[in-house]
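MODEL INPUT / OUTPUT PAIR
PAIR INDEX: 1
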Amino acid sequence: MNEFVRKFEGVKAPWSKEEFEAQIRAIAPERYHDLHVFHKLLHGGKLNKDQVAAWALNRYVYQEAIPRKDAAFMSRVHDREFRREWVHRIHDHDGLLPDEPGGLERWFVLTDCLGFDRDYVASMEGALPATKYAVEAYVRYVVEQPLVVAAASQLTELFAPSIHRERIAGMLANYSFVNEAVMAYFKRRLTQAPRDVSFTLEFVKEHARTRAQQEACVEAVKFKCDVLWAQLDALHLAYVDGMIPPGAWRPAA
């Protein structure tokens, strides 16, 4: 066998763009965090107010990391038009004064209704250690992976609108302390997430050109699902099973 043939024997052909997208979309039915028991409890009205508060407090850690993650991602991009498109993600979360308060401000409306002081939430002092580790692992992943793989890790947004709709309906129906204003963050994401993911998906499909790159992108989406799932594991262990670690927020007796 000649050396050239030997070198490429067994190398997989790239998926078509349609096949590649199908591989990404196939992840959700098995690994997206809407399947987690904690989310089923949350959306089904089975948690008490303290448990919902623990979720909101810990989820802030993830929300706070999103604009940092996007800023780090943009720092690696030399294409000005790409940066012009991507920068609105930072504005979506941090706000763009005077007209757009931003997603973090809307998240504070949720934690306000659950009785938290905003400075305490922003300090992240009471968040679970596992939450902090999982979120920072995601930020580091976006910083360290090849650009197309880092972009692909954000494609869990493909699956987000359904969980937002379920969360809005379930929490409004089941928790008396929740109202339309409190759900404003999730309502806004119903329009923001599809816009973001459309651009990202096309970028990934265009720039992941080898089968190895495509498979790495699929693994990136799985990694992001793991990050989201791990946060719920930690919440369930601490606030459903009662194993709250030292330093984490504890509901008043």
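PAIR INDEX: 2
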Amino acid sequence: MILKFHEYFHHVLNYVSDHGATSGADLRAKIQDLTGVTPEERLLVTDRGTNIADSRIYWAVQFLFQAEALGRPTRGIYEITLLGKDLLRKYPNGFSETELKETEGYKRWIERSGASSKLKSSTDSTSSGEAPQESIESSLSEIEDALAVEIVKQVQDMPPEFLEKSVLELLGAMGYGVDSDSLHHTGGPGDEGIDGIINQDALGIQRIYVQAKRYKTGSNISRETIQSFIGALQGATGGVFITTSTFTSGALEFAGKHLSPKIILIDGPELGRLMLKYEIGVIVRRTYKLMEIDENYFSEN
């Protein structure tokens, strides 16, 4: 199983105490073996692609090193220090970040960082068990989830034509169409259920038809509506039906079984996530870089 971030402190110190100086990469692999991380768990990643088990052990090593419980005799190699041995003797069954913060090594780290007040006021990762990187990514995901919901609410308050044009812009950003001129808005009276046409080649031989329904949340798209959309796909190679609400189970089942032409359904929550991902209707206020040490750079050749 994958342990909490702080639970790896004890395992890391024990391993280097028993086996001597070890590289960071070997430490992460060996600790996963010793703590019973399954093959399936080794593949688990956050929403942003960070490997959970590997990240937690990496940050456990970094905290121990910065707190001087681990030393680096050579580049990329870690060994236990006197402080590390003291921690093992004092806490034979393991310890948390709270206990690590009480050490002189940790206090010196805070002083070296020049960010004493920020580190002291930050939430102790012991409660959640997440590594620092996971906590940051979780916070970002919460912000983005809230934004995705708000985007859809904003679209629901706009005229239907706004949604029709916005989804074409979104599909273009996703890579559909040869160029911007190959995305055509056709919505309006007499559109026969087609709000947009996307030419996938210069001659328009392969075409995707798009329908967009600006419905309030709770007004779900039925199977009959999807059937009507499919009936309008004469000459199309595929269809995309997008709504600000959701689809009934019957609509989802019917679309899933219809393979020619292929039909893709995008509901309100997915629409919000996609608009956020491809930056449609949002602006980037600030970009942060989350970095970690490149151990290959500092390893011995």
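PAIR 2 NOTE: The domain at 152-277 is CATH 3.40.1350.10 (Trna Endonuclease; Chain: A, domain 1).
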